[in-house]
Design goal:
The chain is an alpha+beta fold. It has one domain. 20% of the residues lie in helices and 42% in strands. The protein has an eight-stranded antiparallel beta sheet with strand order 7-1-6-5-4-3-2-8. It is globular.
Length: 131
């Protein structure tokens, strides 16, 4: 199962509160973060995502779950997208956004090394990412 850990203090409530719809375009792939939901206990959040790669369009949720100062981002178990490069890139992008919104956090274990190494373009770069 594709996943990426963030270690340290992570404020999921602030991430969800400040969430904005975002689109990332990379080649022929389009990745969108549509909406975020916070659980009542504030220890998990869902981010609804859509990934379009050619003729393949997949909607799913990225689950951000906290336990013992570690937050893990992965596809929600009830979602069943094909684990395509775009889906893996989406998980890496969501966790990157969460990391950026929580200074002092750092990345932990992951099995997405091949997809997060390429930088995510800055939000102001209209050719790659728009808000």
């Amino acid at each position: 199962m594709p996943h990426r850990e963030i270690k340290g203090s992570v404020d999921l409530a602030a991430f969800v509160r400040d969430f904005e719809v975002q689109t990332l375009r990379e080649g022929s792939a389009v990745i969108k973060m549509l909406v975020a939901f916070l659980a009542h206990d504030q220890r998990s959040a869902l981010v609804e995502c859509v990934v379009v790669e050619g003729h393949l369009r997949q909607g799913f949720f990225v689950l951000l779950g906290q336990r013992n100062e570690v937050t893990v981002g992965r596809v929600h178990p009830r979602s069943s997208p094909e684990k395509s490069p775009g889906v893996k890139r989406c998980i890496a992008w969501v966790t990157e956004q969460l990391h950026r919104s929580n200074p002092g956090s750092e990345f932990g274990n992951t099995n997405l090394e091949e997809v997060y190494r390429a930088p995510f373009e800055a939000a102001g770069d209209e050719d790659q990412q728009e808000r």
